[in-house]
Amino acid sequence: MQMYKSALIGLVAVVLAACGSDGGEVDRGGLVEKFEPAPLAKLSSAQIDGATAASGLQAISGLARCDVEFIPIEYYTLGARGESRLDAHTPVSASGVLLLPAGACAGQAYTLVAYAKGTDVQKPRTLANPQDSETFLLAAMYAAQGYAVVATDYLGYAKSNYPFHPYLHADSQASAVIDSIRAARGAAARLGVKLSGKVMLTGYSQGGHASMAAHRAAERDLSKEINVVAGAHLAGPYNLSGSYKYSDPNNPIAGVQFFVPFMITAYQKTYGNVYADPTQVFNAPYASYIESLLPSPTLNYTTLITTGALPTGTPKQAQDAMFNAAYLTDVRTNPSNAFYLNAAKNDLIDWTPKAPTLLCGGAGDPTVPPVLHQTVIKAAFDAKNLTNVVSVDVDPYVQQLFGINGAAPTDPLTPEFATYYGSYHGTYEPPLCHAQARGFFDRLK
User: Fold this and answer.
1) Domain range for residue 266?
2) Which of 46, 160, 190, 209 is the residue whose CA sits 20 to 30 A from 241?
3) How many Cβ atoms sit within 10 Å of the Cβ of residue 56?
4) Which residues of the chain carry a pLDDT beneath 70?
5) Same-domain check for residues 226 and 360
6) Are residue 228 and residue 190 in the same domain, yes or no?
7) CB count in 10 Å sphere of residue 202
């Protein structure tokens, strides 16, 4: 009886959180009431050119045509369980940034690019920061070329009031991106800026999964509201369940100690069925604190390792130190494993994009291997005889620009090998795929 009473109380709380005791509707994508959009900073085209020349990015981005204004946004969205409120009076919110062309490009009606960021382990980080490398890349590649860009921080980051980040949860990532589009439209209207009505979706790594989920949801449910004219999904993990089922236990992905526990604990918080106790999945000492570690309020990728919060070593060494081997075997071999089934709910293989779509990745990517994701989803699209999906491999460019004498290093015992593959997914691949995306968008805007 006590169990039934507790469950009933919990159900009532969820209903109240979703609906609000005052019965009022939450304005999804509406700007938070206390928030008034205003430029945080402005970079001139000359400043952008100076930075891209110094970093070597200019050969890929080209010269800036526009100045760029950086406008922080805060907006209402949905939680991981589809709830619009944290409690009866507090709507779920997220933050992000709107990048607007200015200077020589002022006064135009801009195509809107909605961007979803890559995996982030730092809870306070916001893209509303012109010094952030990912934000600057968006400014140089898109906004400085005449596109308006909106980029979400996602649930659970920066100024979001959500209690956790539902990592690689397709529906909530999609709603965060879609509601950022609505917020961008609202902010642009308040600022007197015109948008053309055309929307293009892109994202990198986790963001490739998020942008594709948003693309699917927008075309399926919101075609009259959001005119998606193109999608460019970059190095994303679209085949989550398959990647775990067919991954080599002796050759785990680079970054296994970051990405896999983040996904497992996020699905536990979202679905509640992955494990009864963290010790079923994680070894000591990680089991004692892993549920509250990611994203971290103080640590970044480097300090998570140097402080010992996460294990170091090769991917295999890190995997073996962190995870219960029997559990990982069960994920790969047991079709009823809850984590595997949750991952399958968030696969993006079985859908049909209507707008022209670009898939981009690098064959040598050790973190999101295309053979497990991009190749699989392209084959699924090909099986439907789709003619609007293009797949690009930027690995030849990565090798040419960053390899040894134009080729990938082959000796795993050399520092060059560690540097090359350690930098592949996070540094080498992103600008090359963004260049492919912008070229794709330029033909369709």
Assistant:
1) 254-345
2) 160
3) 10
4) 1-24
5) yes
6) yes
7) 33
